[in-house]
Amino acid sequence: MAEPISTQDRLDRIVVLIAANMVAEVCSVYVLRADQTLELYATEGLKREAVHHTTMRADEGLVGLIAREAQPLALSDAQTHPSFSYKPETGEEIYHGFLGVPVLRAGNTLGVLVVQNRTMRTYTEEEVEALQTTAMVLAEMVASGELQALVQPGADIAVRRPLYLQGVSLADGVGLGHVVLHEPRVVVKNLIAESPEAEVARLETAIKAVRVSIDKLIERGDVGDGGEHREVLETVRMFAHDQGWLRRMREVVLTGLTAEAAVERVQSDTRARLLRQTDPYLRERLHDLDDLANRLLHQLVGRDFVAAAEALPDNAILVARSMGPAALLDYQRANLRGVVLEEGGPTSHVAIVARALGLPAVGEVENVTSLVEPGDAIIVDGVAGEIQVRPRPDIEAAYAEKARLRAKRQEQYRALRDVPSVTKDGAAIELQLNAGLLVDLPHLEETGAAGIGLFRTEIQFMVAERMPSTAEQQKLYQAVLEQIGPATPVVFRTLDIGGDKILPYMSQIEEENPALGWRAIRIGLDRPGLLRSQIRALLKASAGRPCAIMFPMVATVDEFVRGRAIVDRETAHLTRHGHPLPTRIEVGVMIEVPSLLFQLDEICRRADFVSVGSNDLLQFLFAADRENRQVASRYDALSVNALRAFRTIVEAAKGTACRVSVCGEVASRPLEALALVGLGYRTLSMSPAAVGPVKAALIAAEAGALAEVLARELARADGDASLRATLSAFAEARHIPV
Ligand code: PEP
Ligand code: MG
Questions:
Q1: 343-368: per-residue pLDDT in tens?
Q2: Closest CA to 675 of 644, 638, 720, 640
Q3: What is the 612 CA–ligand 1 centroid distance (Å)?
Q4: Which residues of 147-173 are buried (b: 16+ CB within 10 A; e: fewer)?
Q5: Can you spell out the DSSP letters for 158-215?
Q6: 277-279-280-285 Cα dihedral, nearest 10 degrees
Q7: From CA 318, how far away is CA 312, in angstroms rounded?
Q8: Which of 129-138, 173-182, 320-329, 423-432 has the lowest mean pLDDT?
């Protein structure tokens, strides 16, 4: 294999060698092309002129059958098989004995390897195994791209073909780069063993070690680096004890393979079978088996089961089955261009971190880790939720243009960084950021935002492997405050867990309707230990500077009063024990449960500030689950009902000492932000990427004119259900970029 000869020569020599060793007159290699036909790439025994000329459709002949079913086929007389089809240019008609095996990699068919004999030969089990082992070498050659040089124009090899894969968007943006596998595949170099007995012993030792390590992970009860949950580990453990699977590996080792080659062989065969299953449950098990095989391979080749965070290329796109948030944070951000996952929905923790890092990310891309090779060119389109693997030059150029335009727009927004956020008629609008992790904080400097209007403290809890202690919470809050400096205001929202925000280490209670369930402040008031410890951590961390605390999901004034009482009690406690206190303590509330709309006067008298959580407020107002794509976008944030609700809040706060802001997603969208300013809001808190576009819109608009149009349209009893069209036209007529 290592000889410095041309690829075709090497392939030709391989078929000669195989034929000789198998005592066969013919040995041929067929490679699966992108158009799903199989092309003869090399032969010993058939006519040489047929090489690169003879092709078979995947539904044609014995070769097609093997490719389709991904199973070996041994026949003493091929010509009597119903699928036999004869290609005159090959001179095949004189052969009877036939043995073909699929060239498999990670369960995907890359081609077919065939030997043939003139006689009616019966191939033994061992011979079938031997040819399958040889096919592993060919698989490596095909997958590595080595055969690329032999590709005829318009006849791309399947495994290297461009792929378009659909997933779901996890984080916005477009990234171009090269594949880096988060859990690098172990490339098995040693296929053939000296002593099968020694290999069986190695295999047994490795299996034992893997079982112990899985038991330990389960015992510890934490979430592993890959974000594994207990259930997954339990399934993996079950497979690790599966006798059929173990027996199969032992059998393969006894045919002369090394332990690691046997693991790979068995796994590839299993994958091939499971990939042809339509039962989602069985396909799901594929992941568990992959996981186990990977652990075994790492055990056998003596590498730890960890990511290759070092040696990252400049434009890395991480591809993984799943990934924990901590693992993503371990990578060098500067080298990352995107993330692609087989699992992971938009609310997964790794998605939250990807968004905080400003990394385009796509999830739920089926089977992607086995469809790409390290180093492959890949494009992540986090806007459309799709990826392009090994893109054609025109596709790559189109995306490069898209990315360039985005970068240019970002550049324009960056230029706005120091421009005061004031409308044309002089209304100052304070733009703040929503944050939740330390990695969010540099955005303050980049965007020129005035402060943090919403710090979602639950994110620390969501990305942690176990419940953060009071000391750990305090440490994070201190780090946040230190990083942003004494003059920048920040509002810490107390834990908003429950609903879709699940802590993996907390026992889950089954609820019919979790969004309306036991969550956020409700947990805080029923189990005050957790809330008290968080408030104490916040007060301690804020010693010597102002401290703003906000309660989520408050439905009645009474709940707020009880929450505030806890703050007072903790303050008294710290005073008694001589702890330094914040210079000022302000307590506020999210307006996100509609019932509070009817107690606004009372709440504004008692709270130091209120902030509109439009994400939840709209979900409850319209009874439309914010996580359910079918209904989430059914109701417009610019509808008359929503705008009137927003207006009620800002008007209730008017003339009181209670400050008011918006921190839900509506504040992140330029047209909606204009509407909010028209209603009278002067403080908006948003995601970092929104600051530029929102500011660009605001500085081109007049607050007075906006107020007029909103007052007029909302007063009309026969008005449209949504003001979107009116407001868009308004913006367009005044050249306001929205
Ligand atoms: C909201 O509900 O609008 C909000 C800002 O909070 P979250 O999105 O964290 O629920
Ligand atoms: Mg909310």
A1: 877 767 788 789 888 899 999 998 89
A2: 638
A3: 9
A4: beebbeeeebbbbbbebebebbbbbbb
A5: GGGS-EEEE-EEEE-SEEEEEEEESSPPPP----B-S-HHHHHHHHHHHHHHHHHHHH
A6: -60
A7: 10
A8: 320-329
- Ligand 1 center to 616 CA (angstroms): 6
Q: Which of 432, 593, 615 to mutate to test the pocket of ligand 1 (most atoms within 8 A of CB)?
A: 615
**For residue 735, what are its two tokens?**
């050249």
**Calpha distance 27→123 (Å, rounded):** 14
Q: Which of 551, 550, 549, 555 is nearest to 517 (CA)?
A: 555
Query: Beta-carbon neighbour count of residue 596 at 10 Å?
Result: 23
Stretch (H or E) spanning 375:
none
CA distance 300 to 562: 58
* The one catalytic residue among 287, 349, 443, 547: 349
- The closest residue, in CA terms, to atom 1 on ligand 1 is 613
Collapsing DSSP to helix, strand or coil, 265 comes out as helix
Burial of 557-594, coded b for 16+ CB within 10 Å and e otherwise, reads: bebbebbbebbeebbeebeeeeeeebeebbbbbbbbbb
Q: For residue 225, give the amino acid letter.
A: D
Q: How far is the CA of 577 from the centre of ligand 1 (A)?
A: 35
Q: Which of 261, 116, 94, 86 is nearest to 187 (CA)?
A: 261
Pocket lining: 453 vs ligand 1, CB cutoff 6 Å: no
Residue 482 CA to ligand 2 centre (angstroms): 27
Which one of the listed residues 547, 604, 658, 663 is annotated catalytic? Answer: 663
> Hey, which of 591, 592, 662 would you mutate to test ligand 1's pocket, going by the most ligand atoms within 8 Å of its Cβ?
592
User: How far is residue 450 CA from its own chain's centroid?
Assistant: 31
Spatial contact of 619 and 569, defined as CB atoms under 8 Å apart? no
Known catalytic residue: 287?
Answer: no
User: What torsion do the CA atoms of 62, 63, 69, 73 make, to the nearest 10 degrees?
Assistant: 60
CB 197 within 8 A of CB 334: no
Helices (H) and strands (E) in the chain — how many of each? 26, 22
Q: How far is the CA of 664 from the centre of ligand 1 (A)?
A: 5
Atom nearest to 552 CA in ligand 1? 6
Average pLDDT, the chain: 90
Residues whose CB falls within 8 Å of the CB of residue 102, separated by 6 or more in sequence, listed in order: 66, 67, 69, 70, 71, 72, 109, 111, 112, 113, 135, 272
CB atoms within 10 A of CB 25: 17
Which residue CA neighbors atom 8 of ligand 1 most closely?
615
Q: Are 521 and 551 in contact (CB under 8 A)?
A: yes
- For residue 347 and ligand 1, the question of a CB distance below 6 A is answered with no
Query: Any idea which residue has 């339509």 for tokens?
Result: 278
- 153, 158, 163, 167 alpha-carbon torsion, rounded to 10°: 170
Active site residue 663: yes
Q: Each residue of 544-579: pLDDT tens digit?
A: 999 999 999 999 999 999 999 999 999 999 999 999
What is the position in ligand 1's atom list of the atom closest to the CA of 664?
Answer: 3
pLDDT single digits (tens) 699-733: 999 999 999 999 999 998 777 789 999 999 999 99
Assess whether the C-beta atom of 459 lies below 6 angstroms from ligand 1: no
Position 505 pLDDT exceeds 90: no
